[in-house]
Amino acid sequence: MSFSSDVKKEISNIELEECCMRAELYTIIRFRSEVVISLGNFGVEIITTLSSTVREIVSLFKKLYNVDLEIIAIKKDKLDYKTRFKITLKEKGTKILQDLMIIDENFNLIDEINYDLFKKECCCVAAVRGAFIIQGSISDPTKKNRYHLEIVAPTIEDANFLVEILDKVDIDAKIIHRKKGYVVYISKAENISDFLRYTGAINSLFFFEDIRIEKDSRNYANRMANCDIANGEKSIKAAKKQLKDIAYLNEHYGLLKLSPRLMDAVILRNSYPDDSLSELSERSEEVIGRYISKSGLSHCFSDISRLVEGLKRR
Length: 314
Prior knowledge:
By secondary structure, this protein is α+β, with helices and mostly antiparallel strands. 58% of the residues lie in helices and 14% in strands. It is built from eleven helices and eight strands.
């Protein structure tokens, strides 16, 4: 089972008050259903691939309106390995759709959002749950290097409706238009965590955070290791340059002509040719009897380098 499926299953098992059941069912119908007319009566058809979603939809209709639904498993085709379930409401369809204000008294579909269903915060949460259950997906944190959550909305009004709800709880969601509809998406890991917490997917939240912490720690360790390697290579390159300068001075100038300060640096470098400046600084008291800081050594080798360049220009 995918991470998306786990999240949907978890939030489908949350116990809801009647007002929240209405809000969730309303969103599910708006976001995924097809309203049909048969023998003068309105009906609803919904297709999903998750058995947990089927159970949630059947439960909502049963608890709210005491109706039975027809469920048909649609055969897999060669390109899609998932079994799809077609859920059909045939009885009391007109009454239910009018009660939810999906169709009006003249049997016309209502495009505007029925905001009366979402006056309470708990019902807004239920709306987001319903939208994610029926049209949402989230990348598997164990497999992807980036985090991504999205919900496909049928219209820009429905997309804006979701973004408004999420914005009120400081979850940054954006909208992009694709062939399949208007996609409400969240790409920041912190906001995805907030979304899981907001919708009540607590077990999924803990799993997501554990993976994210592990990934962040591993990435930090890799960055530090790469930094150490880069610094090590830089130190080795600098040490080779300093040894080369010392050898040139010894041959063309004479080390005894150097000032005591520069001579101390030469002694340290010749004694420990592979050490970094920090390591040479730590050994300075032991080797030459006085402490020279890393910065002091850097200045010494810069003076030596300038002296060598001056000699080469003669």
